[in-house]
Amino acid sequence: MRKLLIANRGEIACRIIRTARRLGIRTVAVFSDADAGSPHVRSADEAFRLGPPAPHDSYLSIPRLIEALRATGADAVHPGYGFLSENAEFAEAVIAEGRTFVGPSPDVLRLMGLKDAAKARMKAAGLPVLPGMMPRDPSLAELERLAVTLGFPLVVKAVAGGGGRGLRVVHTREELLDALVAARREAAAAFGNDALMLERLVRRPRHVEVQVFGDVHGNVVHMFERDCSVQRRHQKLVEEAPAPGLSERVRQALGAAAVTAAQAIGYCNAGTVEFLLDLDDLDSHGDPRFFFIEMNPRLQVEHPVTEAITGLDLVEWQLRVARGEMLPLCQDAIEATGHAIEVRLCAEQAEAGFLPATGRIARLVWPDAVRVDTGVEEGSVVGLDYDSLLAKLVVHGPSRAEAIERMVAALDGTVVEGVATNRGFLARVVAHPTFRTGDVETGFLPRHAVELEASLPPPPAALAAVAAASFPADDGPGFARPFRLNLPAASRLGFWSPDGTAHACTVGRGPDGVSVEVAPGSVLEVRSAPDGRWVVRGPEGTARPVVVAIKRGWEVRWEGFTWRLLAQNPAWARRAAAGPADGLIAAPMPGRVLALDVEAGTSVRAGDRLLVLEAMKMEHRLLAPFDGVVEAVWAEPGAQVTLGAPLLTLARAASSGVPPCGTPPAR
Questions:
Q1: Considering the entire predicted model, what is its pTM?
Q2: Average pLDDT, rounded, for the chain
Q3: With contact defined as beta carbons under 8 Å apart, do 444 and 434 qualify?
Q4: Contact at 8 Å (CB) between 221 and 213?
Q5: Cα dihedral sign, 445-165-288-253
Q6: Which one is catalytic: 64, 99, 168, 298?
Q7: Most CB within 10 Å of its CB: which of 83, 140, 410, 477?
Q8: Rounded to 5 degrees, what are φ and ψ at 150?
């Protein structure tokens, strides 16, 4: 293996390039027009243009990738994850060219790529599987019949693919048809296969997976388990290894089951066997029963946490196994040390329903002493052509408690300007008391939705830190700003929260920093620390918040929470993303209109679906904000719309007592 083509983009391409370079293997990056200036393109030894930004014209185009293979003379292909990483036809095309595909065989990809076939094979191998239905007749009528037989609640799943796409939870029969239609449409768009299957719903599951490796010599090992239970809309947000709170008996059983699964299909290279643990179904030892759900025949997004606890380079193992070598270590030689946590930093408006965010990254600061896998940099443009992942932050500590503290500090020290991110939300999740105890399951986020909202008023320590950061300082200890003449001994400073709430404090110089009176008789002493934080001392103890300068103000980050304080009264003009009082329904994000459920004259009730937008591979439903009648429709199925584009207008029902909306806006 002398030259490796990486059939992917972004952070995973950069990750693979690092290991290949260390092993003396030249690399070839491929790119779409949207990625022409991306870091992964510059990092590789060579680069090949695939085509326009649309994935089917670039990263999903097998003919163009094979053309790249021929043009560059690469003798091996690493598919990364996503895109064509689980596509048997792509693996076959690479092998037909006489090149090495870094991954399992096409036959295994084909088998594991279909959840129904994989489930049947694993059941035959003795692994426990969830009760379910796999229809022979793909019609909606047959799926409805089987659903009634299986009983509610249940899960509708796409047979192909993964990542939560094509998956819907159905609690009642009335929800079924809409869920089937949506899951089928999403599966067809994401995987080119609209086949569906049904499974019994586990009400309180933990999502635990086991990393496995096999070689062409028949050896198979596991590298312990990872917990991926903290999810939003079936998309993983936080992953950790090892999984917290499992008995040694369960850990060993999961590892043995994963190895059995890999051996049953002659698995070669890196793979992940995924399980659900049913917290409501305990065995005689008091441990939750587990069930096989699927096998991902590729490297996983969350592989860095396994690397952190084992000290191994999984990409190096992939390349060595692909060259025909034996696994570098036997099972007894693989050890786990400490605890690792990974979070996925995404371009999302977490405080606005996690709508996708776009824009140009104006400023980017990563924390020290933390592993950051990223494919973006200052100046990168974040669009809607690909998923929203900007970076993965990975920490390792001697204990889970220490790893949590390091992750909270890492997120507090991360700065991304120009594009909204879920940074603050991730910090609140990791710092949450229940997460700290290890009491996690896939319902963690909805169960703690209220506590995870960014709506707490700023505490005195946050106000004091901003006051100190904005107060002109002299040359004394703890200050970085120059001395300015003719300043009063104390100043009255004012700040505003984004909702317009005013905050005032009195600031004066102290012996080792500044003194901040945040309320009558309540004085806090503040000084800057060498690590960039502010040390705030008061009657209730010491706080060490981070203050980040932002446009028109500051962000204060402390213990997982973020407060934004502005230098001037914002006089916010609130505009709802969908369903304002005047009846105008505007696009809450740039995207494509997938489905339109109404036309002019349609009567709707509050909560009825009006249309579906697709952005960053996810579907977003726009619902009627009140009872009324559709007056006009400008949206068309398949059309691309910009942020704020008018889609339709509603006139309120006469019984509401509110006059109908006015003249529709010009198109």
A1: 0.82
A2: 89
A3: yes
A4: yes
A5: negative
A6: 298
A7: 410
A8: -70, -40
